[in-house]
Protein 1
Amino acid sequence: MNGMADAEKLHSELGRIDGKGYKAYKDIAGAYRVDEFILFIDHVQGDPFAAPSRLRLRIPAEDADFPAELSSTRPRRVALEDYLLRAFDAALPRVTQGNRGSGKSGLVAVDTPGQEILERTAVVVAPEYIEVRLVTGLPARGRKVLGFQAREMLLEEIPEVGRRALYFRRHDPEDIATHVRAKEDSVHLRAQLEDLGAVAFVADGSLLPRASGVSDRPLDSSRAVPFRSPDSLRRRVELPGAGAVSGMIVPRGVTLIVGGGYHGKSTLLRALDRGVYDHVPGDGRELVVADPRAVKIRAEDGRAVAGVDISPFIGALPDGTDTARFTTPAASGSTSQATNISEALEMGASTLLVDEDTSATNFMVRDRRMQLLVRRDREPITPFIDRIRQLHRDRGVSSVLVLGGSGDYFDVADTVIMMDTYRPADATEAAARVAAGHPTGRVLESGTAFPEIAGRCPDPGSIDPRRRGRIRVRTRGVSTIQFGTEDIDLSAVEQLVDPSQTRAVGDILVYARKYLKGTLAEALQRVESDLEEKGLDPISPFDGHPGDYARPRMLEVAAALNRLRSLRVSRGG
Ligand code: ADP
Ligand code: MG
């Protein structure tokens, strides 16, 4: 990269290379003073159809002039970055012209977020500057440089977008404050769960249903029934922004969500699994929060498994497979669900979220009649119902279960929430009365305590991101990582919500290899503390900017590695 040059230099370079072959664009890499901005051209694409060029637009903090308190804590800074990213993205189509020739010519884009406010790399609010990382398709006709069009894009349009988005005075201060407050309140609320004795909180008035199965935006407010807590589970909390807020706690222990079909059970559970993230104002779930180590658990038949201890749930298999080190290229419904729980416990999960819609029936319960017909010594499965209380008592792990079919779980529940036309009621006592009046006759099938799940040590040699000798990690959407010669299927990892999180997960798998000496959990703890300290930039393999990461939890990083089919492990301490 050259030193800092003036806009005139870029202007004249673009004039000079106009009409030349596309490779001539390589000459414009560098940093330029463009009006009040610095424009970094970090990576220049090789041709108009290749991955777009990577740029950064930077403005001095004193020009942008955002009040210091908007970024004085990490949650605030993340929220301000998120706000500016959305503002920049919204201004783009109003200023940029769009298609300007062949391939990606004319493209100008930033990494757009969804309904969550996540830590991302697209905007950086630093003490001295604000920086937006963007991609652009440098314009060409065929493969010939369109230098004058590039001038318009780089020297006029992109700075103009920056002008509209990056100055405090161009925004409604109340809008920004609302955004920052939403994040801050959500973080605050989550931090209070422990004192509330709860694994989740759903504020009164929240709107949980989504617009459709393919949209994460809220259902039209004229059709959505606002959440209202049952009195017995209602608590009041104080939040820095919203002040006094009331809502329902989901207590620690074992909680059932019951109710008729289509009464909103799964919608509530889904809101809880998303409650590990913070949401934008207007989402409806701004004040729905969950234990940050809550993990959605489901059956996932066909997934690969590497040396996982599922023996608390599955004993000796008919083919003699050792379930203390369960390894298979294709797990069944019940063994995959047991695996997902053991892997989550290994990573320190403290709440399990389970929906019967996506569970293996034989994993959830064996009723009295089945116990009589199929003898215990012929059945390798210890159903979840016989482990769920031990999990809480011995491991401090709570469970929240959506159930419509099996009342056997009334015996093991601390709290029963009944959904009735989208309204929750406290049915704990009613369920206890039913349980007392109608014994199931089931015999407990588990041992007395829930054993420790041993940590596994991944074999670094089994994690190979290379393809034809070169590191190659790509992602498709939220749920596929192409890792070297393999595809990792993450479609059952439901708490991965943003394609930019998936991109980060892919590159973290490469980055984490240097820490793979002990257990997986230890290695990912090291990664996590790196991310705490330095943010997401260091995981990027590019020399150009990594403007398209969003931060994942280490639980999801582990979930990805655990689904890598080549993974081999040994047992750690
Ligand atoms: P269940 O799991 O009890 O069968 P779902 O949670 O799948 O039910 O909800 C059924 C339908 O009702 C879904 O289309 C969902 O979007 C809608 N729904 C859920 N909660 C609400 C609500 N509070 N207001 C309006 N519609 C809702
Ligand atoms: Mg359901």
Protein 2
Amino acid sequence: MDEPEVNDGLISDSKEAQLKNLLYLKDLHKDEIIQLLDQSDHFLKSNQPDEFVELLKNQSIASLFFEPSTRTSASFQLAAKRLGAETIMIDEKTSSATKGESVLDTIKNLEAMGVRGFIIRTGDKNLFAPLIDNVGSNTSLISAGEASISHPTQGLLDLLTIRQQKSSFDHLKVVIMGDISHSRVARSLTEGLNILNAANITLISPEEFKPNMANFPNTDFEKDPNKGLSDADVVVALRVQKERIESCENGLSLDQYSKIYQLSQDKLELCKPDAIVMHPGPMNRGVEISNEVADGKQSVILKQVENGVAIRMAVLTEILKQ
Ligand code: CP
């Protein structure tokens, strides 16, 4: 694979290159991903907090979160503020959604007030396709997480974190371990890693959490962490998503799960000595990851969070710049 291409960190002025929406990383070209990572690095390197406040001055952005969030919601708010944009937070529980107003009607009303960018988190797999066809031609939709399907800005911040730590995706073995079948994070990260030609992507989970492998092209699947973790450069531990598990998932208990699949210090030692540990958050400490590993010296979990603001600044700038 080619080395990641680094430019001067400035977003191109080319209108043709501008993204309209961001829903799925698989829709992006390698150059577009690299551009967003480079731009994020540029934002991170700045030591002048006010340097970018003109970039989205006079732009209005609305956040519509139909599922809970801490990191994604807060980092989009901070990103928009650092770019000088106005932000509106629509809370499902206190908005007219409670009176039955559709998401499309909500968007159309906010469009009428001059809002151009919509950051949406939803558990509904069928929301975005009809929205894309019906929103205004100047309106952009940015996914902040869609059911178990996509979390593109999380995928980008994960790619940025890996690139910062490992320089190149060439020869890299990335292991994603945990509740893969419910994980939009795993889907988006895999899409991005495939576009950047990571050498090996291995998914580790019990049979109960094995995903439809058609959604994870070019990946290996392994039930046994002792085999799958061997020689890994990057380990991404995933949360057991109790809220998406409709039944008891064939009787697998959290205790049994943790004994085999918890990323503990002894399991981390199966990886390369310089392997990095990632987790999208929120963590179930003591379930999918031990405290020792989460807070250990190989953990880059809080670096991922820091990168989340820069990635969202890059995405908002790329989509909403004029
Ligand atoms: N990683 C992530 O999406 O976290 P939040 O649910 O807190 O936004």
